[in-house]
Amino acid sequence: MNDTILEVVDASKHFAGLKAVNGVSFGVTRGEILGIAGPNGSGKSTLFNLITGVPFGPTSGEIRFQGQRIDRWPAHRIARAGLARTFQKDAEFPDLTADETLLICGTYNGQLGRVAARTRSDEVLGLVGFADTRRGIPSRNLSVYEKKQLMIASGLMSRPAVLMLDEPASGLTKPEIESLDRLLVAVNASGVTVLLIEHVLSLLLSISQRLIVLNQGSVLAQGNPAEVVRNEAVITAYLGGRKQ
Ligand SMILES: Nc1ncnc2c1ncn2[C@@H]1O[C@H](COP(=O)(O)OP(=O)(O)OP(=O)(O)O)[C@@H](O)[C@H]1O
Predict the structure, then answer these.
(1) Do the beta carbons of residue 193 and residue 6 sit within 8 Å?
(2) Membrane-spanning regions, if any (predicted)?
(3) 155 lines ligand 1 (CB under 6 A)
(4) How far is it between the farthest Cα atoms of the chain?
(5) What order do you get walking across the sheet with 68-69 strand by strand?
(6) Measured in Å, how far apart are the chain's first and last C-alpha atoms?
(7) What pTM was computed for the model?
(8) Taking the domain 1-82+160-244, which CATH number applies?
(9) How far is the CA of 46 from the centre of ligand 1 (A)?
(10) Is the ipTM of this complex over 0.90?
(11) How does pLDDT run across 24-57, given as a tens digit for each residue?
């Protein structure tokens, strides 16, 4: 049985002369946590953009999700098919509470009625460990870690098969990164395949089963995380060409 849930085949995104993503191919196995690393500007967020169609699909290449070709689908159709993502930002709706935010995500992305959305909110907030006492305050007043919890909970409202996270550890303290580690393991254990863009190497090494490193829009290395971070080309890319 083929257990590949998501396939990126020779995908590129070019902005005029800039090859932001250039001929990238990889598969994602159902149930895994796949880490994606790379220096700033190497094309990680653009790769998420072209997979999810937010705000654009690939210039060329194919994206296949659960056996269907999705690279010409509108973003909302891709989301509703089971590919959810988060962005590198603080709070989706700063003026809204966690409950209100999740109601919007549940009814729009998850296409749930109000009662089902409320039930799902309880489930996802429990899964990410969000305190009940914090559900009624505007998101802008939450701590950095609580905003991350809410962001991940929002992505889970539609019961996605795949959750794509863009640098969720940014701005977190070391103990908070350890909490995030446990949170993501719990999300994965609940049956969600996870794609994780991250600069925090300790998190990637702790939870990823495989690691892909991008550089200048192309795959530089992929495979076992501990081996990939020892790869000489990867070290050189991170050090900007300086030899140690
Ligand atoms: N909409 C756009 N128009 C033009 N250039 C873009 C656009 N989006 C991204 N780029 C460029 O594409 C390249 C890759 O950017 P991208 O944001 O994907 O990198 P990244 O690896 O996610 O970086 P970081 O780690 O800093 O978030 C960069 O040179 C960026 O300036």
Answers:
(1) yes
(2) none
(3) no
(4) 59
(5) 18-29, 4-15, 60-65, 68-69
(6) 45
(7) 0.93
(8) 3.40.50.300
(9) 6
(10) yes
(11) 999 999 999 999 999 999 999 999 999 999 988 9
